[in-house]
Design brief:
With 325 residues, the chain is α/β, with parallel strands linked by helices. It has twelve helices and twelve strands. Bound molecules: ligand PBG.
Length: 325
């Protein structure tokens, strides 16, 4: 049977009907707001390549976190800009490191808001690499201990979820073991299991001041041509004890997101990254796209592809737009 009996337009006639039969939903509860935290007080330093985003001192990050919670965003993920960087990334695992301070302050001010912490060394090493460096090599196994130490210190500061984004082999197992040994068996691991070596991270590296001084991240992050390998990474991390997995970036990798969603039964997130944000903001500023509609369409597309939750710099704005709709 077909036309004229069948008319798909019948179900598109009004917004009420369209909403009634919509397959993918998008609510503020699906979103996670990333925050960049730096030392100081009352600091709100604009990030040039991410208009509308700021490097924030702890007090300002608390304010931002409260605002996110007020519009229904359930979680933030914290990135740190330490006072000083060194070869051992000591700012990453210091008891009073910047992320640890921010975690404590946000959990105190807004206990119901989930705090996720990014576990990686690139913001804390003087060379800007995600792991320890010997000669011109990023060395895997010695890095694991430092990552584990970082995760434990974040958990001790009150993080609900630690999120390793370094892409070293074996880091989920190392982190799980260290958390359990530290009495933090209840702290969950969100693994950036599928993280591509992507040019879409450009603005983030300005925001987090984490551009590598030499070389690139291609020996640990995934090659953009690979999708089967994404499943291999996901199964390895789940085998090591990851509670949730992340695919990153989002829009250029929706096929990968769908494959991961279909392959596993744990929650799957997607990271709508800095370059994706910057492209929307830049085009909107030029009047070339309708910013608000492009934001919501992008996020619902990521949900449709299978993301249970989305890390996005648009979290707060999107939540406000959804409240208005
Ligand atoms: C840290 C990290 C990066 C991002 C999240 N965690 C940067 C990188 O790998 O260079 C990128 C996030 C974004 O672009 O929004 N390793």
């Amino acid at each position: 049977m077909g036309f004229p009996v069948i008319r798909p337009r019948r179900l598109r006639r009004t917004e009420a009907l369209r909403a009634f039969v919509r397959e993918a939903s998008l609510t503020p509860g699906d979103l996670v707001m990333p925050l960049f935290v730096l030392p100081g007080k009352k600091v709100r330093r604009a990030i040039g390549s991410m208009p509308g985003q700021f490097q924030l001192s702890v007090d300002e990050a608390v304010r931002e976190a409260k605002e996110a919670a007020a519009v229904g965003v359930p979680a933030v993920i914290l990135f740190g800009l330490p006072e000083a960087k060194d070869a051992r990334a000591s700012g990453a695992w210091a008891k009073d490191g910047i992320v640890q301070q921010a975690t404590r302050a946000i959990k105190e001010a807004q206990p119901s808001l989930l705090v996720l912490t990014d576990v990686c060394l690139c913001e804390y090493t003087d060379h800007g690499h995600c792991g320890l460096v010997e000669g011109d090599q990023i060395v895997n196994d010695p890095t694991l201990e430092v990552l584990a130490q970082t995760a434990v210190s974040q958990a001790e500061a009150g993080a609900d979820v630690v999120a390793p984004s370094d892409m070293m082999d074996g880091r989920v197992a190392a982190i799980r073991k260290a958390l359990d040994a530290a009495g933090k068996a209840d702290v969950a691991i969100l693994s950036y299991a599928v993280k591509y070596a992507s040019a879409f991270y450009g603005p983030f590296r300005e925001a987090a001041e984490s551009t590598p001084k030499f070389g690139d991240r291609r020996t640990h992050q995934m090659d953009p041509g690979n999708a089967r390998e994404a499943l291999r990474e996901v199964f390895l991390d789940l085998g090591e004890g990851a509670d949730m997995v992340l695919v990153k970036p989002a829009l250029p990798y929706l096929d990968v997101l769908r494959r991961v969603r279909d392959a596993v039964h744990v929650p799957v997130g997607a990271y709508h990254v800095s370059g994706e944000y910057a492209m929307i903001e830049a085009a909107a500023k030029n009047g070339w796209i309708d910013r608000d509609r492009v934001i919501l369409e992008s996020l619902v597309a990521i949900r449709r592809a299978g993301a249970d939750f989305i890390l996005t710099y648009h979290a707060k704005d999107a939540a406000r737009l959804l409240a208005r709709a």
